[in-house]
């Protein structure tokens, strides 16, 4: 088993042949360790980390591998229009300003 030190090296080994690539994920909550073991039937790779930023990289690699294993194209993210947040803030300010205080009669 080869222990890989850099994430780029591990990711490159995973992308060589995604059809033959298999991996196992283990998370130890007590030690806050993420261990990823992978094989392509020739070499077994192991990557171990405690960094939270690697989780984002692993999530993107996992998504890419799933699409590659299914032989499907990776969908492009759809951009959300920025006008929706402006509309919500505009309506909130207009409703607050349109309400008038009622004068109560004092006795």
UniProtKB/TrEMBL annotation:
GO cellular component annotations of the record: signal recognition particle, endoplasmic reticulum targeting
Biased composition (Low complexity): 77-96
GO BP terms, alphabetized: SRP-dependent cotranslational protein targeting to membrane
InterPro entries documented for this protein: Signal_recog_particle_SRP9/14 (IPR009018), SRP9-like (IPR039914), SRP9_dom (IPR039432)
Disordered: region residues: 77-107
Alphabetized GO MF terms: 7S RNA binding
Residue span, SRP9 domain: 16-69
Residue runs in coiled coils: none
Feature: compositional bias, Basic residues: 98-107
Taxonomy, superkingdom: Eukaryota
One Pfam family cited in the UniProt record for this chain: SRP9-21
Alphabetized PANTHER family for the sequence: SIGNAL RECOGNITION PARTICLE 9 KDA PROTEIN (PTHR12834)
Name this polypeptide is given: SRP9 domain-containing protein
Species in which this protein is naturally found: Wallemia hederae
Lineage start: Eukaryota, Fungi, Dikarya, Basidiomycota, Wallemiomycotina
């Amino acid at each position: 088993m080869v222990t890989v030190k850099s994430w780029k090296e591990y990711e490159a080994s995973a992308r060589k042949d995604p059809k033959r690539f298999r991996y196992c994920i283990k998370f130890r909550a007590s030690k806050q360790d993420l261990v990823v073991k992978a094989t392509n039937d020739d070499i077994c790779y192991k990557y171990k980390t405690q960094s939270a930023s690697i989780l984002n990289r692993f999530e993107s690699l996992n998504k890419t591998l799933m699409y590659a294993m299914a032989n499907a194209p990776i969908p492009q993210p759809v951009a959300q229009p920025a006008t929706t947040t402006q509309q919500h803030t505009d309506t909130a300010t207009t409703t607050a300003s349109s309400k008038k205080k009622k004068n109560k009669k004092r006795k």
